């Protein structure tokens, strides 16, 4: 518990990772980061006991939707283990068909990354997946949803007249 609390001191963005195919799946994840610009690589970590772990192991592609401020309900939906399996789990949220991969993309997200699975590494009770970005879309200026100390949070707006 102490380790989890200490990890929680680091604020992270909130994403929904998705795979397509015959059994599409989505999962809320905050262990996502950029790795490289050349080639364009992203990293995500998935618990070995998660249904998504089995889905990613079988899939050659995946997508990541970086959730925007106000999408806490979407994050909670894809973190709920009692949600339907397969395509039915996407009925409760707005989504778009990916243009490059067949994984659904979350509508209204701040950014979308469509990726080819590039490498997978053992990471203890998780697997570390690297994905090569094949396509990306972003909404500049859109605030993102954050997770910090066990709670969802939004960025506070900057006071007017403050230079970045």
TrEMBL record:
Keywords: Oxidoreductase. InterPro entries: Flavin_Rdtase-like_dom, NADH-dep_flavin_reductase, Split_barrel_FMN-bd. Gene3D superfamilies: Electron Transport, Fmn-binding Protein, Chain A (2.30.110.10). It comes from Streptomyces glaucosporus. Residues 7-154 form the Flavin reductase like domain. The keyword Oxidoreductase applies. This is Flavin reductase family protein. It holds the Pfam family Flavin_Reduct. The keyword Transcription does not apply. It comes from the Bacteria. SMART domains: Flavin_Reduct (SM00903).
